[in-house]
């Protein structure tokens, strides 16, 4: 799993991996979680009020500020970007 900061000043972080993983991260301000998933396989996220179960290759949801622990992600080759709104 790789975690990268985006361009300086935009406050975005990206997380990329394959298969399943358990994430922990903190959101300081109202944000959006955008995801991409390759391979045409199902993508799922669950944890702290977020539930995604999709066959789409991309999508996004709103995130409230707070600590996201035990955030379970499952997909093919996926990337999640969390960016302030």
Strand tally: 7
Output the radius of gyration: 12 Å
Helical segment count: 0
Biggest β-sheet description = 7 strands, antiparallel
Structural class of the helices, strands and pairings? Answer: mainly beta
Average predicted confidence as pLDDT:
87
| Strand residue content | over 45%
Shape: globular
Q: What are the segments in which pLDDT stays under 50 over at least 5 consecutive residues?
A: none
Query: Could you tell me how far the N terminus lies from the C terminus, measured between alpha carbons in angstroms?
Result: 25 Å
SSE topology string: EEEEEEE
Helix content: under 10%
How would you describe this protein?
With 85 residues, the protein is an all-beta fold. The chain contains no helices and seven strands. Strands 1, 2, 3, 4, 5, 6 and 7 form a seven-stranded antiparallel sheet that branches. A hairpin with a 7-residue loop joins strand 1 and strand 2 (13-27).
Structure described in brief:
By secondary structure, the protein is an all-beta fold.
Secondary structure layout plus pairing:
Elements: E1 2-5, E2 13-27, E3 31-37, E4 43-47, E5 50-54, E6 58-63, E7 66-84
Antiparallel strand pairs: 1-2, 2-7, 3-6, 3-7, 4-5, 4-7
Which labels suit this protein?
mainly beta, 0% helix, 72% strand, globular, 7-stranded antiparallel beta sheet, 85 residues
